[in-house]
Amino acid sequence: MRLTLLSRASDLARLQAEMVAAAIRRARPGVEVALVTRQSAGDIDGVTPLAAFADKGAFTTDLSDALRTGAADLVVHSWKDLPLETTHPTVIAATLERADPRDLLLVRAETIATRPSTLRILSSSPRRAWLLERALKPLLPWRVDALAFVEVRGNIPTRLKRLLEGQGDALVVAKAALDRLLGGGEAFGTAASAVRSALEPCRWMVLPLHEVPGAPAQGALAVEVAASNTAVIELLQAISHRPTMDAVERERAFLAAHGGGCHEAIASTVLPRDYGVVISAKAKVAGDDADIWTIERATPVPRAAAERIYPRPDERDRAVRRPLALSQPKGSPALFVARADALRADWTIESGQLVWTSGTTSWRKLAARGIWVNGCADGLGDGEPPNVDRLAGRAVRWTRLTHADAAGPDDLAAYAVEMPLPDDLSSRTHFFWTSGTQFRRALEKWPSIRHRVHASGPGRTADVVREATGSPAGVWLDYEQWYRDTCL
After folding, report:
1. Which of 272, 341, 428, 461 is positioned for an S-S bond with 436, CB 3.0–4.6 A?
2. Cα gap 316→16, rounded to integer Å
3. What are phi and psi for residue 289, nearest 5 degrees?
């Protein structure tokens, strides 16, 4: 069988087409795949603002036409570019495993040095403008009073060039795009070098999914085929990644439920995890706003009276944290900071040294101290990979700053935690643990609680509970959500 695979002509589009072609060849060695390119209306018209295009198919409709005419057997799109509805008799027959769905902010180093009170950001996205207006200022390590958004068009190299020319102070792009170009191999070495050269005079931060969800389907590829071409549809099932397909379909359903327009501020990211499905979704549409940050789980949640849970709201925040004597490590290691106060105020963070936090609360505290933070785990636990090796240009080894009882052999114990437990803990039935060490202490003193209803946030504490009880802990994104779902 010989297939003609069509994509747009940019380096990124051709690289994505090559990824699909390689997956087909691996799954079906006897299939020959020929790659061809075509410009879309959005490529030809690089001047008109995106908001002025009549529909969202500016980068896809012309390519989809090739399936109708028989000029191509399949087309590879960036899925986020596809409109919800199409007049073409086609189907999305497959997708590969998704790349990172997060957005990336690049800021010129000379801008950071001058610390302007107004930050000019190159972006044509209503979603990004709305979300960054709400979230970005406290994530920056200097006071910014206003954000000004500057229209920008073009492929990734063009937008990077606009940034370096000084047409803006910062640029927002899909992280997946840079990751793919940086990892495209020898055939795309020129494109990778151009991206690396643009990264050098900038600093970057991976924007948190909690506050800045991606565009629906961001980071995913859509392989479009004529609905009548059953042979190719069947062939593509061998390369399709079902978890990505399910997540994207849910994100696009959220888009459809809130109007589906490409000119609206609509964001949705669905993350399948072994403890549940994490959903971050926000929309600002006339009369139809939404703000979702939750975990969906398959099993129902047992509930309890307030006197039977631990901790009750008045029992929270009783932990006493005592800083430990700790010398600054040499060599400017990449730091994963469990709590902001674990990073000592007398340490010097070098320019370019990577700093990652457990969530945005610690991020904002460190930014207020003038520290550039590269990203966070969004409260999903330190098992959530930063996935920044390509951006950093090396395999990053993280040094975790945490409390003494949680520190492993490669971690630094920055503080000790003392957490008093109530005398009547054995009478409680529902527990939310924020520390694996605290859970072990409680279990040692009150063994009868072992098989009661335990919960925690994502991460190591959930692992400790599972290992000790033989059953998975219920996982919530925070105590407040657990209390709301558990307390009668």
Report:
1. 461
2. 49
3. -85, 155
**What is the DSSP code (8-state) at residue 435?**
-
Compute φ and ψ for 467, nearest 5 degrees. Answer: -65, -35
Structure tokens at 69: 């005419």
Residue pLDDT, tens place only, 336-383: 999 999 999 999 999 889 999 999 999 999 999 999 999 999 999 988
Structure tokens at 21: 């072609």
Q: pLDDT per residue over 42-73, tens digit each?
A: 554 455 555 544 455 555 778 888 998 899 99
| Fold equal for 2-99+216-292 and 103-206 | yes
Strands lying side by side in the sheet with 412-418: 320-323, 412-418, 398-403, 334-337, 355-357, 375-376
Find tokens 């932990």 and name the residue: 319
Name the more confident of 41 and 439: 439
Amino acid at 162: R
- In the chain, where the domains are located: 2-99+216-292, 103-206, 299-317+419-486, 320-416
Whether the model clears a pTM of 0.90, i.e. scores above it, the answer is yes
CATH number of 103-206: 3.40.190.10
Q: How far apart are the first and last CA of the chain?
A: 62
d(CA 443, CA 454): 11
The DSSP result for 240-286, as a single string, is: --HHHHHHHHHHHHHHHHTT--TTSEEEEEEEEETTEEEEEEEEE-T
The type of residue at 138 is: P
Instruction: State which H helix or E strand residue 321 sits in.
Output: strand 320-323
Helices 460-469 and 436-445 sit at what angle, rounded to 10 degrees? Answer: 30
One-character DSSP codes across 138-202:
GGSSS---EEEEE---S-HHHHHHHHHTTS-SEEEEEHHHHHHHHTS-GGGHHHHHHHHHHHTTE
Please state which CATH class domain 2-99+216-292 belongs to: alpha beta
Angle between helices 189-199 and 156-164 (to 10 degrees): 30
Which has the closest alpha carbon to 177: 395, 390, 393, 394? Answer: 390
Residue 275 to residue 259: CA distance in whole angstroms = 31
